Amino acid sequence: MPTALRAAISVVMLAGFYLLGLAQLALVGWLLYEIWTHLHGAGAAKLSWLLIAAVGAVLAGLWRAIRAKPGDPDGLLVSPEQAPELWQQVRALAAEVGTRAPDEIRLVPEVNAAVSEDTKLLGLVGGTRRLYIGMPLLQTFSVDQMRSVLAHELGHYSGSHTRLSAVAYRGRVAMHETLDRVGRWNVFGWVFKAYGWLYQLVSSAVARRQELEADLASVRVAGVDAAVSSMRELPVVGAAWGFYMNRYIGYGWELGYAPDDVFGGFSQLYRARADELAELREQEPDDETSRWDSHPAIGDRIAAMRAAPRTAHAVDGRPATVLLPAVEAAGLALQREVVDFGSRTVLPWADFTAASMTLVAQNRADRVFRSVARLTGAPSAGLAELFGLVQAGRLGELAAEFFPESTRREAAARFAGPMDDLIELAAVRSGQARWQHSWSAPARLVDRDGEPVDFSEIAKLAVAPETLDEARRRLAERGVQVETVTVVQTRATGQGAEVLGAMPNVKVDGAEHADLILLSKGFVLVPAPKSTDDGDKRVAALLGAVSPAELAARYRYLPFEEISTVRIDREVPVNATLTLHDGRTVGIQERWTADKMGKSDDLFREMLTELRDKRDR
Q1: Is residue 166 predicted with pLDDT exceeding 90?
Q2: d(CA 272, CA 438)
Q3: How confident is the model at residue 120, as a pLDDT?
Q4: Which UniProt keywords apply (predicted)?
Q5: Residue 29 covered by a domain
Q6: Predicted confidence (pLDDT) per residue in 251-278, tens digit
Q7: HSE of 540 in the Cβ direction (CA atoms, 13 Å)?
Q8: Is the distance from CB of 487 to CB of 369 less than 8 angstroms?
Q9: CA–CA distance, 378 with 587 (Å, rounded to integer)
Q10: Residue 147 contacts residue 318 (beta carbons within 8 Å)
Q11: Is the alpha carbon torsion for 596, 600, 601, 604 positive or negative?
Q12: Which CATH number goes with the domain that contains 608?
C-alpha cells in the first residue's frame, strides 16, 4: 500500500472519530430541542441532564485527545563524538536503505530498537528523527546482528512509516481518552467502541505490513543470515533480561535494596548463562499471531526473510559493544538517566545479593515466628521459642498450619525444611555464614572460607524432642547462636505478594463500601464510594500506581495467616464472613451492580473455599 494512501486512511479514520463526536453533539442538541418543545418541568430536566452527561463524557475525552502531545524523548543521548563507529554504521546503513539518517541516537533500557519522527502537517512534513537502541542488545548482539536491527529500523524511515507516528499517536490518544470516560451503559459510547475496534483492526494490519517491509530492508542491507540470526536472538535476549530483572534485581528491589550497576550485571549474567541460553536458541520461534497484533509472528518473519533474494555480505562477528566505546560507563550513565532508586540502599552486587537474601530469609522466619507467638501467647518469638515448642512436643500444632494436608506428626517431620531455613538465618546472624553471589547459579550459603554449608541434617534433629539437644550441641560447635534470630516484623506485610484480581465496590460488614484487591498473600480493602460507577477504572488506576506491598501497608490488610475460619453464606453473589485469630469478624458481600474485572469474582470464591477447607482440616 503506498505511503500516501496509508496517510490518507489514518487521517480519514482519525477525522471520522472526531466527526462522530460532532454528529452526536448535533443529535443531542436536536433531542434537547424536542424535549423542551414537548415536555416541561422536572421530567424534561432529568432527560436533558442524562443526555448532557452522556455526550459530555465523550466530548471531554475528545477535547483531551485534541490537546494531547507525545511526551519528551526517553533514554540517554549518544553523540557522534561519544560513539563515532556507531554513528558511522548508522549513517552508512541509512544511505544503503535510501533514507535520511536520524538526528539523534538514544540508549534505552529495553530489549528493543525503535525509531520516531517529529512530523508536521499530519505527517506530510518530516522533522527530528530519533533512533532508540536497547542497551541489552548492544551488550549481547554481534555487529552483524546489530546492523540487521538498525537496518530494519531505518527501513521504517525509508518506507515513511514514521511520518504517520504523530497521526497514529493522536488516534490512539483519542480512542483511549474517549473510551476511558464512557460508562458501560452510555449509548453514545457504543458507537465509539465499535469505531475503536475498527481503527485498531486497520492500524494493526498496516503495522504488520510495515514490519515486513522493514524486514526486507534489513535483509537487503545486512544479509539474510544476519537478519534471521538477529530475529532468533531477540526472544533469547528478552527471556534472559526478564529472568535477570525478576530473579536478580526484583526481589531485592522490593525489599529496599538496589545494585550499583544494573546494566553491567546483565552483561555478566548473559555470558555466565551461555549453556542455558543455547538451549533456548534451539527452540522453534513462535508462529502464532492474531489480527490484533502489531507485529507478525517471528516464525512468519523468518520465513519471509529466507524467501528474499540472497546477496553476498561481509561477516562481522565482533561483539556490538565495539560500536560504543566505554560501554560500562555508558551503562552507568544510562542508569543515572532512567533508573530511579528512590530511598533504596544501593550496594555492590555481592553485598546486594547477600543483603537481599538475608532479608528474604528474615521475612520467611517472621512468618513462622508470628505463628509461634500466637500459639504460645507470647508478645514476640524467635528460634529459641520455636525450640521450646519442639521440646514441649507441640511442634505438630504449629506445623499443621503450614502443612494442613498432613497429620500433626507428619507435619512436624516435614517442618525440617522450614527449620533448615531458620538455622541458615541463625548462621548468618551469628557471623558464621554468608550468601555468596553467582551469575551462573542461584546464590548459595558459604562459611567464612567460602565453602558451602549444609544444615539439613541438624534441621532434621531439631524437629523432634528426643534429638533437639543433639541439634543444639552441633549448632554450638559451629558457632551458631540460636538467640540471634528473632522476629522483626510482628505484623504480616504484603512484601513479595502479587495482585491476582480485584472486585470493585464490595460491601464490608453490611455497611462500608470498599474495593477488594486479591493478593497472593491476603485481601486488601480500599475505601470506595457507595456508587458502583467506574469502579473498574478506579481500581485499574490504583493498581497501576501502587505496588502490592504499598497497598497492604496503606489500606486495611487481611493476610491469610491471620484468618482462622471462613464461612461462605452464599456463593453467587458471594457473601462470606472471615473470622480472625483475635476474634474479630469481617463480612464481605459482592454487589450485583458492581463492575466486573475479568473473572475475579470466581477467583475470590475459589480462594475463600481453599481457605475454608484448609482451616477445617
Answers
A1: no
A2: 9
A3: 56
A4: Cell membrane, Hydrolase, Membrane, Metal-binding, Metalloprotease, Protease, Transmembrane, Transmembrane helix, Zinc
A5: no
A6: 899 899 999 999 999 999 999 999 999 9
A7: 9
A8: yes
A9: 29
A10: no
A11: negative
A12: 2.30.29.30
Dihedral sign from CA coordinates of 93, 99, 102, 105: negative
DSSP percent split of the chain into helix, strand, coil, nearest 5: 60, 15, 30
Q: Which amino acid is at 107?
A: L
* Cα atoms in the 13 Å half-sphere on the side-chain side of 604: 30
pLDDT over 80 (residue 54): no
User: Which triple of cell numbers denotes residue 96?
Assistant: 544503503
Give every CB contact of residue 294 below 8 A, 6+ residues apart in sequence: 203, 204, 207, 208, 211
Whether residue 209 is found in the same domain as residue 107: yes
Structural domain of 329 = 76-160+205-337
pLDDT averaged over the chain? 85
175 located within any domain: no
Q: Among the residues of 308-430, which ranges form H helices?
A: 327-338, 349-376, 383-391, 395-402, 408-414, 416-429
In 3D, which of 614, 125, 221 has the Cα closest to residue 411? 614
CA nearest neighbour of 516 among 499, 531, 493, 496: 499
Q: pLDDT for 192-231, tens place per residue? A: 677 777 777 777 777 777 788 888 888 888 889 999 999 9
**The model scores a pTM over 0.85:** no
Q: What is the pLDDT of residues 582-594, one digit of tens each?
A: 999 999 999 988 8
Same domain membership, residue 216 and residue 126: yes
Q: Which of 337, 357, 386 is the last residue of a domain?
A: 337
Residue 291 has pLDDT above 90, yes or no: no
CB atoms within 10 A of CB 442: 9
Please check the confidence at residue 3 and state whether its pLDDT lies above 50: no
Q: What is the H or E stretch that residue 178 is in?
A: helix 165-180
504 and 419 fall within a common domain: no
For every residue of 235-291, DSSP letters joined together read: HHHHHHHHHIIIIIIIHHHHTTEEES-HHHHHHHHHHHTHHHHHHHHTSPPP----T
